[in-house]
Specification:
There is one protein chain. The protein has eleven helices and 14 strands. The strands form four sheets. It has a five-stranded parallel beta sheet, with helices on both faces. The longest helix is centred in the middle third of the chain and has 20 residues. The two termini are 39 Å apart. This is Sporulation protein YtxC.
Length: 339
């Protein structure tokens, strides 16, 4: 899956890049709840925003993406904790109910239990004027608890939440695959919550596995959860998308040297995965000494400065001219003087 949508909502227009595993890295200018919640609400069976919101397929001549195109589900680590409680509205409870209702022997078990309940009442409580509330699948589900002690785990696994997620997320994936017809998509909010860096890597692998069957869109402030594909990357400055279709073309057009498209794409990808957390912090950029961002090759330095100018974020330069191709040095210094 690789799609680019133009979302129009409340006099606002923004691009959303979608893939099997896509990400939005949040900075202080990003109103992520507004951007994502509106899209999630649009792709609901009874959408409340479909009459005031439009989504266009940029790569398909801006044709309409109807609200029935797919169904969106929003999850988070906090919601997974709630799922473990098997509440009345949890997807896990719906999945278990679906499994019970479709099991060939469920009706027989329920009927046997109700017969035994009647016999018990007749024999043990004959003098009491009572009526029975018959046993049902819903009644059975109220008796079920999620038992973390029964989960298989290794000796070095200490995070109870991560162990729950390893069990619950694959179950939810199978439920969505079986019970929800047509396309679906999971928007996962801040999967880094409650997790150490190593545990975040484990969680990302889990979400990648889910993305093989159901596309996953991650909203995060952790670099670990970034997608490795720049076409699936999302980064907004005051809700304006940086990763548009024109980004690479702009880089080629303004380039002081003849850099090829693939080289520029690699530079953008490496910059995002290595330095995105520094963008909003007025970083010092250098090519010869310790700094917030250290860049040694000319192409990456050019792309980095261009992106800072495009984002309108402040930055500082401390460069040695002899370490850079002359045209690139002249370009970045001219740009820096404009800051």
């Amino acid at each position: 899956m690789q799609e680019k949508w133009l979302v129009n909502f409340e006099e606002q227009s923004y691009q959303l890049n979608i893939g099997t595993y896509s990400s939005l890295f949040v900075n202080y200018t990003t109103s992520e709840s507004h951007l994502i919640d509106s899209v999630v609400n649009y792709f609901q069976p009874k959408s409340k925003v479909k009459d005031v919101m439009t989504i266009k397929d940029i790569q398909n001549d801006f044709t309409d993406v109807e609200s029935q195109y797919m169904q969106a589900f929003q999850l988070s680590n906090e919601m997974i904790i709630e799922e473990a409680k098997i509440g009345s509205k949890s997807l896990l409870k719906q999945q278990m109910k679906h499994s019970l209702l479709n099991h060939v022997e469920t009706d027989g078990y329920i009927q046997t239990i109700n017969t035994l309940m009647e016999d018990l009442a007749e024999n043990a409580l004959p003098e009491h004027p009572i009526s029975l509330k018959y046993f049902s699948v819903d009644a059975y589900l109220k008796m079920i608890e999620f038992n973390t002690g029964l989960m298989e785990r290794h000796d070095d696994e200490t995070n109870d939440f991560l162990n729950q997620a390893k069990v619950i997320l694959p179950i939810l994936k199978q439920y969505l695959k079986k019970s929800v017809t047509g396309k679906k998509m999971i928007f996962y909010m801040y999967p880094e919550l409650y997790l150490s860096p190593y545990e975040q890597k484990v969680m990302k692998e889990l979400l990648h596995t889910i993305g093989e069957d159901i596309p996953v869109f991650v909203v995060t402030k952790s670099m670990i959860f970034l997608t490795n594909h720049i076409d699936y990357q999302n980064y907004y400055i005051y809700d304006k998308q940086i990763f548009t279709n024109d980004l690479i073309e702009e880089l080629e057009w303004h380039s002081p040297l003849d850099y090829h498209e693939e080289e520029l794409r690699e530079c953008v990808g490496s910059i995002m995965t290595q330095h995105i957390n520094m963008f909003e912090l007025n970083p010092l950029i250098s090519n010869y000494r310790e700094a917030d961002i250290i860049v040694f090759d000319s192409s990456t330095l050019y792309v980095l400065v261009y992106m800072f100018m495009k984002m309108d974020f402040p930055f500082q330069l401390d460069l040695k001219a002899e370490n850079i191709d002359v045209p690139v040095y002249k370009y970045v210094m001219e740009m820096y003087e404009k800051v």
